[in-house]
Amino acid sequence: MIIRAVTPADRAQWEPLWQGYLTFYKTSVRPEVTETTWARFFNGLEPMHAFVAEDKGELVGLVHYLYHRNTWMIEPVCYLQDLFTRDDQRGTGVGRALIEAVYGAAKAAGAGRVYWMTHETNLPAQALYDTLADKPGFIQYRKALG
Question: Per-residue pLDDT tens for 26-44?
Answer without folding.
Answer: 999 999 999 999 999 999 9
